[in-house]
Amino acid sequence: MATAKIEDVKPAQQQKNSATIAQLATPTDLKANATKAISDALNIALSDVFAIYLKTKNFHWHMSGPHFRDYHLLLDEQADQLFAMTDPLAERVRKLGCTTLRSIGQISKLQRVTDNEAAFVTPTTMLSELCDDNKSLAHNLRETHDLCHDNGDVATASLLEVWIDETERRTWFLFETCRGADDHGH
Q1: Which fold has domain 28-178?
Q2: Which of 60, 73, 128, 138 could disulfide-pair with 167, CB 3.0 to 4.6 Å?
Q3: Where along the chain do its domains lie?
């Protein structure tokens, strides 16, 4: 999927909301160009988190095979962890004086994660795909962390450090769970 940009949202909608956006501005000592760049990166990350959350729940709901219970519970735990990231991510954007996601349509335009709508996916493919998605998320969160560091946004960088660690843990668990497994989860 092509790299998304916040600018990909409909320009007419952006103009229509410009007066409202000014009313939503929050004071900050960070420079305007920094808050815009960081908020744009956070909104894209938030879109990715929602996409991975929904894919994780999709695979949780459609899991099958001899390790059903273990995989089902693992994915439910990971989905909860992803969902727990969403509100702090969105609120951080607001604390920076910018606006955050408003719709599923906006998420679909910004997400870098590829959806999986296949009628059947093997357990090993599910775990492997989620492993790759979480690995990509960790990489993208690191890039956003660098942006925050470069602009003196210590608070956002601090939050990202925790989420990078959680994402690496999910990646590790998924990698180890599917290591050496066949398509049936054995």
Answers
A1: Ferritin (1.20.1260)
A2: 138
A3: 28-178
